[in-house]
Amino acid sequence: MGVAHGEVKAEAPHMGGINEAGCGRGPRIGVYVCHCGLNIAATVDVARVRDAVAGLPGVVVARDNKYTCSEVGQKTIADDIKNLNLDRVVIASCSPRLHERTFRELMARSGLNPFLLEMANIREQCSWVHGHDREAATRKAVALTRAAIARAALLEPLERNVGSVTKSAMVIGGGVAGISAALYLANMGVKTYLVEREPSIGGHMAMLDKTFPTLDCSLCILSPKMVEVRENSNIELLSYTEVRKVEGQVGSFKVELLRKPRYIDEAKCVACGLCAEKCPSKAPDEFNRGYSERKAIYIPFPQAIPASYVIDPNYCRYFTRGGKCRVCEKICERGAVDFSQREEIVTLDVGAIVIATGFEPYDASRKTQYGYGRFPNVITSLDFERIICADGPTHGKLKRPSDWEIPRRIAFIQCVGSRDEHETDGAGKYCSRVCCMITAKQAFMVKEKYPDAEVYVYHTDMRTAGKGFEEFYQRGRSEGIVFVRGKPGEIVENPEDHSLRVVAEDADSGCILDLTFDMVVLAIGLRPPGGLVELAQKLNVSRSADGFLLEGHPKLRPAETSIEGIYLAGCAQFPKDIPDSVAQAGCAAAAAAGVLASDRIEMDPLNPVVDEELCIGCRLCEKLCPYGGIKVEKTDKGFKARVIELACKGCGVCGAACSARAIKMRHYSDEQIYAQTAALLEVG
After folding, report:
1. What pLDDT, on a 0 to 100 scale, did the predictor assign at position 424?
2. Do the beta carbons of residue 439 and residue 455 sit within 8 Å?
3. CA distances from 528 to 9, 201, 570 (A)
4. Pairing of strands 378-380, 638-643
5. Confidence of residue 651 (pLDDT cuts 50, 70, 90)
6. Which residues make Cβ contacts (< 8 Å) with residue 607, sequence separation at least 6?
7. Exposed, middle or buried, 271 (CB in 10 Å: 0-12/13-18/19+)?
8. Cis (ω within 30 of 0) for the bond into 306?
C-alpha cells in the first residue's frame, strides 16, 4: 500500500558508523541529527553534519533521523543507550524550548541521568535564518553540533530538587477570564484566592450591553457567575487589592498583597443606598465612562460583587476638607462606615498562580485627527456600550453627548489603535481581533433600535473569523449597514451644530465619499493594562513585543508561562473575545490543578554552588538575584552567601557577577562553557 496523501512515511535512521575510537575510557556520546522533515534538511546538508562529527573524541555513534522526536527516533536513541552503553546524548534539532523535556524523559526511562543531555539548535538558529545559503547553513550546523559535543563531554549527573506543594491557588484579575479560572479551580476542590484591584469583579464585560453574535445581555451571562464566586466556599475574594510582591517557586509561592481601604465594613454593609442618597459630593462615574455622575460613596454598578459601597477619598469631603462632613457615617444604621480603615498587607501561600489581568482600551485621544476628547460627538466603542445600555446614562436610548438628541446618521471607524504602523511605542501594530465584530454588533443594534438611521462603517477590511461571525456580519449588510473599504484621514467638526464631516475614498467603487454625521464611533483597540509591566517584573514573567505576557509556547503551552506554576488566561496574553477567554481560563485552571494534585514537586537542579572559602560576603549576588534565590548570612566563618535551592531558577546572574569567583553554576560550569566556545571557534 502506498503512502496516503498528507502522511509522512517513517524512514530508518541513517548511521554515521560506530566510532571505535570513542569506545575507550571517557564519555560515550551518541549524536542524533534531525531532518525535522524539511525544516532543517531543506537548508542544511544533514548527512554532512552527521559525518563531520562522527569521528570526534568520545562520539560512539552518529545518526540522522527524519524526525528524532517521533516514536521511531526516540526508540533508536533508547536502543543505542542500551546496546552501546551511551552515557551522553547530543540532539541536533530544534529549540530545547520545544523538546528538551521530551528527550530528558526519554533518557530517564532509558536509565540515564536526564541532565546528561545537550541540544544544538540547528533549526531556529541555523536553517531558519540562513535562507537558501545551504553551504553557510551546513557549516554553522556542524559548528553548533561540534560545540554541543564538547560541552556534553563535561556534563555531570544532577539530582532534581524536591519541594512540597501548597494546595491553594491565586487568580489575579476579576474579569470574565479570572472569574472563570477561579470557578474552575474552586469546583475542582482547590482553595482559590481571587485578587481584583478594582472595588468589584466583572471587568470590562460588565460594561457591555450585549455580546456578539447572539446579542445576549452581557450581565445576564456574567452576573450569575459573579454571584457564584461570592457563594463558592472555596473562593476567597480579595477586591480592591493589588499584588505587591511575589517570592518562591512552583508549589510554594509567597505573595504579598496590598488591600486598599474601602472605608466600609463589607460584612455590615447591605447596599441599602441611604449613604449615597445623602452624600453631598459628586464625581464622574467611571463605569459610565464619565457620561454621568456618582457620589463620593458609591457602588460601582448595581450587580457589583462584593455588593458593598466604597468611599472615594479623592472626592469625599472627610478627606478633602480636613475631617468634615461624615454624613454617611451618621446616616448608616448598621455602622458600616469606618473612616479608621488603613491600607493592609496580606500574605498568602499558594502553589500556583493564574494571571487574568485583562486589557485596557486604547486612548483614542492619541489620534488627534479624529478629535476624541475635543469633539463631544466623537465617542469610542466602549462609550457606545454605556450610552446604549439600559442601565447607562440615557437608560438605553442612543443619544449624542452634545445635546442628548437621537443621532440619525452614524459613522463607525475601524482600527483606531490597532494595525497601526505609526504607533510610537511599538505596540498597537497588531490586530485587536474583536473590534470588527464589536462594530458589526453595535451597528446592528443601531438599526435594530432605529431602523431609519443611516449607518456607515469605514474599514480596511472586516475580519469576522469565529463561530457565527460571518453570518452576523452579512446579516448587518442585509439590514442596510453600509461598509466602506477606506479609512478617513480626519474628522472635522461644525462648531455650530457639532456635526462631523468625514471624507474617505471607497476602495471598492473608487468614489470619494464626503458625508456629514451626527455621531462618530471609534473602534478602539485593546492594549496591555496599566501596571502589567510592574506585575510581570514581580512574577519574573516575560512579555512579548506587543506588551502582553508571553506564553510558554504558542502551540503546545498557550496557557503557561516560562515560569513553572504561573499560567495565563484571557487578554493578559493577547486580545481575545469572551469565549476564547473563558476557554483559556479553563486550560490555565486545569494546568494549575495538575500541579496542585501532587504532594511533592521536582525542579531542575540548576542552582549554583558557593565555595565558602572564596566567598567574601560582599552581597552583590544577593542584590542582583531577580528571584531571591541567594542570601548572605552570618556564619562562624563570617558573612557567606547561601543558595535557596527551591527559589533559584539557575539564571547565572550570581555566578557571572561574583568577583571572587566563589560561585560555580551547576550544569553551566566555566569548564563546560570554555569547551563549548573553543569547539565553536575551531576552523573547519
Report:
1. 65
2. no
3. 45, 18, 12
4. unpaired
5. confident
6. 161, 629, 643, 645, 648, 650, 666
7. middle
8. yes
Lowest mean pLDDT among 16-25, 98-107, 349-358, 615-624: 16-25
**Looking at the whole model, is its pTM more than 0.90?**
no
Cross-strand pairs, 517: 500
Distances (CA, A) of 431 to 365, 411, 434, 439, 464: 19, 21, 8, 14, 12
pLDDT band of 4, cuts 50, 70, 90: very low
Topology classification of domain 360-527 = FAD/NAD(P)-binding domain (3.50.50)
Give DSSP secondary structure letters for 533-602.
HHHHHHHT--B-TTSSBPPSBTTTBTTB-SSTTEEE-GGGTS---HHHHHHHHHHHHHHHHHHHT-SEEE
Does domain 604-666 fall under CATH 3.40.109.10? My reply is: no
Residue 556: burial class (beta carbons within 10 Å; 0-12, 13-18, 19+)? exposed
- Find the distance separating the first CA and the last CA of the chain, reported in whole Å: 45
CB 108 within 8 A of CB 102: no
Ranges of each domain in the chain: 14-152, 274-331, 360-527, 604-666
What's the pLDDT score for residue 25? Answer: 66
Does 14-152 carry CATH code 3.40.50? Answer: yes
pLDDT digits (tens, 9 = 90+) for 655-668: 999 999 999 988 98
